Amino acid sequence: MAASDIAIFYHPDGFDTKNRPLMGRRAAGKSFLDAWFDRRGNGDTYCVAARQQDFQHFATHGKTRGASGRAHWLRLDRLETAAQAGTLYFPGPDIALNAWRRHRRDPKAFSIMGVTHTICTKAVMDGIAEWLTAPVEPWDAVICTSNAVRQSVDYLLAAQREFLSRRNGATRFPQPQLPVIPLGINTKEFAADDKLRAQTRTSLGIGDDEITFLFVGRLSIYGKAHPMPMFIALERAARASGKKLHLILAGWYATKALEKSFADGAALLCPSVTIHNVDGRDDAARNGAWRAGDIFVSLVDNIQETFGLTPVEAMAAGLPSVVSDWDGYRDTMRQNVDGIRVPTLQAPPAFGEALVDRYAADIDNYDLYLARSTYNVVVDVDATVEAFVRLIGDPDLRKRMGDSGRARATQEYDWQHVLTKYEGLSAALADMREKAAAPDAKQRRVWPARLSPYEMFANYPTRMPQLTDRVRIVADDVEAMIDAVKRTSNSILDREDVLVANLRGVIKEIGGEERTLDDLLKPHDAGGRMQRIAVLLRLAKFGIVAITPVEGAGGVKRGPGDPA
Would residue 191 count as lying in a domain? Predict the structure, then answer.
């Protein structure tokens, strides 16, 4: 039976929320990893990492979560070792690179499981399109975190298939499985805490009978949600309800100018609402904000958003929500059950042609692309005001929606339920992999854009080594020459002790007589032969040995001007 455990492709950039800017994908990555170690307990874990220090970071994370099992390092430069687990989990949708690397060895060695986060960057859109031309297999999968994202991915793939069919006459388009599985959260982190609620509200000067709205996330006009509809709706709701309203902005600003823009907008558009800025990157401050709120609000209008963790976190915190009817929010927030979704409006497709041309040509960077696109998305302010007023005036409704959301978050979105789906997917992919026909052993599996430099540039040298080549030591003082190699070698490439040991080992094998290359390679396995060729070439490069062809032997390359 094919292995179906999961090896985590680990780089701190995808999981570290302390030493890097806090972003949704990193928050989701850390939450996933926390839950993964919690789930494994004393079981083994597998980590694919490029560097030992990255693996150590992974293993240390596990220990801090109380995981006592053994962590295995599967080296990135030996990707075939992922077969020990069965599935390689990559925390993004761009799985083509690892599919190519797997293809060069064994397409059935393991499955690749990716996941969507933001899909509107050039790199990610190019990566999705590449699925149809890269050796991605049916036993691979990219998890779509929402139905909206799945539909967008399907649309991109359909356009790519149509282009390849028309342009190249292509008829076969293997692609990964695209299951819809939401992101998860650790719901226990959002449990009610009346003491913390009272402390936070007191520290912010919020009265018991005053209503507090809460936004959590990056405070960005172009990267998350334009605040103007929220500010306008809050002011109108305050006047309509006669209630004193507060708004906690639990997030962070990328620049001082952006912070000023929010402050100026709030002062102008909702002067009767008290604004509280809380650093959402600080765990304690963010936890207090979650408990202090009465109504969660997130009027996202941005194509960068795909799933949206904060509405799910709001449900886990027992808060009723008012959110935009947008992407993954439509999956998670049940209308009039867990909260209220307000309608959105977007420009028709033709309006985006100029935007994407500017982005594709690098006239506009990613931020400008998002900024231009978000100004053509509208959140219904009237509907938002109506939702605000309804919830402000009905505490029983707030409680029913909050209770309903908390139950839904616990039953549907806790990582332990979501990871069960991940494990089921991994098992299903393993079953597909096992049942698939074995690849043709005679078929050469090549990555055309990443050929060996000694293959692609085989026409550059005069010749290549032949098994009949003669090898002999020619240096008068071998130790002096080894010392010269040590002094002139690149420390980035070689550990000195390993380099010297390899040089001396091969010199000992050569001995005092002339040997054929075949004689020197024959006693070793494939890996050993490759290593010895490399060492022999290093020895020859520095004049310690000579590698000469037998007179009349093949392998000599002539230039076009050379006599035959």
Answer: yes
